[in-house]
Each structure stands twice: as C-alpha cells, then as structure tokens.
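Annex B. Sample input.
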Amino acid sequence: MTDKFDLPPSATHQAFGLSWFFPFPFPFFSPTLKKMPADVVVELGCLPPISPDATQTTEWAFASLDKVHIDFPTVAKILVSNGNRVQIEKYADGTQESLSLLLMGGAASIILQQRGFFPLHGSGVATARGAVIFVGQSGAGKSTTLGSFVQQGYKMLCDDLAAIRLDDNGVAWLYPGVPLYKLCPDSAEALKVPTSDLSRVKAELSKFIVPATGCQADEALPVHAVYELSTHSDPELKIEPQNGSDKFNILLNHTMGKFSFRSMGLHTTHFRCAIALANTIRIASIRRPENGRIEPYQLVKQIEADFLA
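Annex B, continued. Sample output.
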C-alpha cells in the first residue's frame, strides 16, 4: 500500500526499475530521460518520533507496518514508508557520502521490500541466458567477479543490491541498479583498474568507486542463475549446483534487510517469493581457492561455461 501524493513531483533519477525525486544533487543514480511522476519521493526535514509499536530489528533500525525508521549515528535519521517516501533528518556532522551510501543501500532495499521486490545482497550481469547474480558474505568477491565480467564485455546490471521482481507469470526479473561498482585495492590491481582518479567509498575505507556509465544494461532481464561465492582450501575453483532447501536457504541468507520483513507484515510474501525463485532459477555455489588468485579471464570462462551449459 502506498500513500497518494496530490501532485507527485517529477522524477529526477531512475534506479531499480523506479523513478526517484531527489531535492539535492545525487550523482549515483542515473538521471531520468523523460518527464514522469516520481515513484519514490525523497524529502528533507524533521522526522516524527519512532512509532511506539515499532520493533527494533537491527542496531539502528526500527520497523512497523509499512514503515522503517533508521537512526544511523552521525549520519542521519531516515524514515522509509509505504514504498514511496524517504524522509531524511541529517545530523549536523553527517557527510553527504555517508548519506548517499545509506540511501542507495539500506533505504533503497526497504523501498523495494515495501513495493513487493525481492532484494538480494548481490551483483548482477547481463548474459545471453538472462541475468546472472553473484551473492556472498562481505569479502566473498561479488564486486570483483562483476568487474571481471565487465572487463570481458558483459554489461553490468547492479552491484550490492539486486532488485528482483516476479511478474504475473511467475518470471523473476532483475532491474538495473546503480551504474557503479566498488573494488578493494587488491581487486583493482588484479583487474588492472587505475585508482589514482577514483573516489573512495568513504574516506576511512579503502574501497574505490568505479563508474560504470555506458557499461550498464538499460533494461530488466529475466533471472537465469544465482551463484553463491565463498572460498575453500582446495587449489581449484569448484562450481556445484544446489537443490531443494539449499536453494531456498541461499536466497533467504542473502536477502538484503531481511530482519525488517516480519515487523512490516511482509514475511509471508517474502517466503512465497523465495520459494517461487528457488523453484524456477538455477542456483549454484562457487568456491574459489582461499590462498590463490584466479585470473579474471579464467574466472569468467569457468562461470560462463556453467551458465551457458
């Protein structure tokens, strides 16, 4: 359910299959190419107090029906509501870079949840078979794998947040996200990406922001496969298909913002969507050597051989 704005402002940006209005410059989302009303309105101002019936779901998040209140110390308080509204109250010492990370990550994932999407913490590429998504814990190599595919001529769809939605026929579609990906210094070196002119994700973090304008697919694609990335002690990369409940658990484990679903009354819909996805797409694990580096070209070719088989 969404609020109805009497006169929704015209969209200024687009991402995740939605049009967004920002009241300030936001270079990370793509600008809109035509005039249209915004699906999501971002506003600045004072927030109401946290609802007394809200449940604390993480260290900084409080969720209630159709609403999530995020209180991120030193950055901002954010209220995400009804799938169409993001209200922001900045702290005096909050930086724009930290606010931007919060908006295009946590806040965007909640908007997607509220609108019936299935948000995965993963990176996606466009292939001849459809969208291929890479999920995994932090440091598993999602962005590095994405960068390897981009260097081999593949179009990226998303990094970090994969916006999936089932259509009326039960087909899962992945929508283009933010046209950038993030690399740590070791990954940038392996991919031979110069970093001297790149911005850092945050001043205190070593990850670099790699612009991908012109390297991103323009349209949503049906999801063909999801690969869970991890490491093992063997010297070779191994790809193993998953079946049954293992597929379902991989999707649940890598859902972004999963702790808020129940408090928002969305957990039943989320479980049904996870079951539908598990039953219709290929899900496999990729285990790479923990003490060895695989050349980007070889990594792409081995994964490519699997999803094209």
